[in-house]
Specification:
- The protein is of the alpha+beta class and 311 residues long.
- The chain has two domains: 105 residues, no CATH class; 192 residues, tt1808, chain A (Alpha-Beta Complex), CATH 3.90.1570.
- Helices cover 28% and strands 22% of the residues.
- It is built from eight helices and 15 strands.
- The strands form three sheets. It has a seven-stranded mixed β-sheet, with helices on both faces. A six-stranded mixed β-sheet has the order 1-2-4-3-7-6, with helices on both faces.
- Helix 5 runs antiparallel to helix 8.
């Protein structure tokens, strides 16, 4: 799980090089997750408990009695996840394999995260991804890329993960797990350092020069509900800091508005996503880099909170 890409703005969020070797009795501290609730994985014959715990956590998030939007378990093995996959406990959500979007760090680490998504989380990454798709369509690339959504990807060893959104070129690279070239991850209650772990997973588990190909860019969207701020970071492999950061905030001298994008302040725009990093070839003809403008981000901020209010 540790990575050269790992970034933290809080020492308590750092991850030990060998979590299992820690003598701490607190599993959260053992895994560098101080302040979060980390639970032992239920026994395989009682694995359906996870579905119940997911519903309880969603209710707590709705009621404002919890801000932790992830269920985190330790001592997890692939056998536990296989049992969860086959259980009939979630009959009302039969199209979902797990109770949330999964990040599993493999049998040796034994740590699994289930991200419980909500309307703001979903809107934030979908607004960004759909507008990227529209820009690609406008330059004649409608048949040259594949949106990957929350597909499950298998990493090194037993590791596996679902993203929020992403893109891979079409036709795909030769054989393999077909990792996207561009990944989008969003988070509400989870911290920015926690999102950095998601970013690290993609880079660590899609090594270059492999048949499945490497992830070139990860876009992180961090939503701060109390202050209505949104931070978007653009990360590249091997980078110790984001290549670009965009901050969207309500205007300090204008009334809060869900109707007028001019009441939102955007810093750091435009954000440019290089064409070659997404499509793995130079641009041709009218093909250009993907440019996300200041106006785009202002409208993203306004519509993000408008969606929450209407729902």
């Amino acid at each position: 799980m540790p990575s050269a890409n790992s970034t933290s703005d809080n020492p308590a969020d750092s991850t030990s090089d060998n979590p299992a070797a820690s003598t701490s009795d607190d599993p959260a501290k053992r895994f560098g997750l101080a302040g979060l609730t980390v639970l032992p994985i239920p026994n395989i014959d009682d694995i359906a408990t996870i579905y119940t715990q997911a519903e309880e956590r969603r209710a707590q998030l709705d009621q404002g009695t919890s801000t932790q939007e992830t269920l985190i378990y330790y001592n997890t093995t692939t056998s536990h996840l296989n049992a969860l996959h086959t259980t009939n406990a979630d009959t009302t959500n039969a199209d979902r394999i797990y109770p949330g979007r999964i990040t599993f760090f493999g049998d040796e680490i034994g740590l699994v995260f289930f991200k419980l998504v909500d309307i703001v989380h979903e809107f934030a990454h979908l607004y960004l991804s759909i507008n990227i798709y529209e820009l690609l369509f406008m330059i004649g690339l409608e048949n040259k890329y594949v949106p990957v959504g929350s597909s499950t990807y298998k990493g090194i060893g037993m590791q596996q993960k679902e993203g929020d959104s992403g893109i891979r070129p079409n036709p795909p690279r030769s054989a393999g797990n077909q990792f996207p070239t561009l990944v989008i991850e969003a988070g509400n209650g989870e911290s920015l350092p926690r999102l950095h772990r998601d970013k690290d997973w993609w880079f660590d588990n899609s090594p270059p020069n492999q048949p499945e190909g490497d992830v070139k860019i990860v876009l992180l969207i961090k939503v701060y509900r109390p202050t209505k701020r949104i931070v978007i970071e653009q990360w590249y492999r091997y980078s110790q800091s984001p290549y670009a950061t965009v901050l969207i905030t309500p205007h300090p001298h204008k009334p809060f508005s869900l109707l007028d994008s001019s009441h939102w302040v955007v810093q750091g725009a435009p954000m440019v996503i290089p064409f070659q990093d997404v499509f793995l070839r130079p641009s041709e003809g009218q093909e250009t880099d993907i440019v996300l403008t200041k106006d785009f981000f202002a409208d993203m901020g306004r519509q993000c909170w408008e969606t929450e209010t209407r729902v």
